Amino acid sequence: MKREKINLKELISKEEIIIVPELHDCASARAAEINGFECIMLSSGDFACAMTGVPDLQLLSLDEFVWITDRITNAVSMPLLIDADDGFGFGRALNTWYACRRLAKAGAAGVLITDAAAQSKAGVLPAEEAVLRFRAAKDGLEEADSGAVLIARCDVNPVEHFEEVINRCNRYVEAGADCICVLGLNSAPAELRFPLAKQLSEAIPGWHWYPDLMSHEGKSDVDLDEIAKYRYKFVGVHYSMHAAMLAMLDTGKHVMESRNNVYVDNHYDDTGFKCFSPMTFYLRDGYWAELESRYVVDQEDALAKRITPFFVKETDRF
Q: Of 124, 131, 234, which Cα lies nearest the Cα of 176?
């Protein structure tokens, strides 16, 4: 189905906090859209695992990120943000400019860039170099003329170096950052997370991103309603690759043991979702069948129309 594109800045203007699933491909993006999320992010780590089968060691190229950006933004209506680490620059700000420009032209509604040290070394860039990286990132986004926003992630520990974080982030905002993410918030001691989040928002202008929605012992690490009061407009959440791996391992185990496919057919019935095939999610609304039928002389030649009865079942639920 052709869906109206969601505008990121209009979304930000709303009062509520935006929960942003951090995803890895078109299928996970489509699932998030069906679930009702309104904004998504490409997780560099999950994308690396899905794309290469190795940990996120920053081995993927800018071309691979541009490739997936183009595909996801053509698959769903939600604004897509890209976790681009240092901007594929290996410490060179001009490379960051180029990366941000290309990602925005490919359809990214925003790009997250970090102040992490060059070439994946430990630590962070000196403040002056970090400012230049963010300035280059902002200039690259503006060169693309797409309205894409810049999210500046500060990797300095706010518990140990609070004043440095404040100083850096204010300079990042001056350099053009639209939103600030202090990575160390979600690794701070539990009793310090909310006070730190509040203090950071009071000292740093603009929108804020809470780094990750996590939980321990069955309890969420953060109250979204509370942090929303302090200009936290976004909170990231990783679940798609994690859930996909667990489901594939669990289902595969049962298929291997039972030597049949009964488990996948009925195990997920109580979730409220059921489908004959992932193709169901793309064929059920009839968009592709109707679209293709416009351009064939003989309707029997319309592939989407022919395969729909096989993949779309009355028992489907989503």
A: 131
Residue 181 CB neighbour total at 10 angstroms: 24
Q: Which of 81, 166, 88, 164 is nearest to 123 (CA)?
A: 164
Are residue 22 and residue 98 in the same domain, yes or no? yes
Q: How many domains does the chain have?
A: 2
pLDDT-based confidence at residue 1 (cuts at 50, 70, 90): low
Q: Are residues 272 and 211 in the same domain?
A: no
Q: What is the pLDDT of residues 261-293, one digit of tens each?
A: 999 888 888 888 888 888 988 998 999 999 999
DSSP state of 103: H
The reported pTM is: 0.93
Chain position carrying tokens 């509520």: 16
CATH number for the domain including 121?
3.20.20.60
Residue 250 belongs to a domain: no
User: From residue 259, how far is each of 255, 262, 263, 273 by CA, in Å?
Assistant: 5, 9, 10, 24
Of all helices (H) and strands (E), which one includes residue 18? strand 18-23
Q: Describe the chain by its helix, strand, coil percentages, rounded to 5.
A: 50, 15, 35
- Within 10 angstroms of residue 230's Cβ, the number of other Cβ atoms is 15
Domain that holds residue 229: 8-242
Beta-strand pair 215-216/219-220: antiparallel
Q: Are residues 142 and 208 in the same domain?
A: yes
Same domain? For 17 and 57 the reply is yes
The answer to whether residue 1 is domain-embedded is no
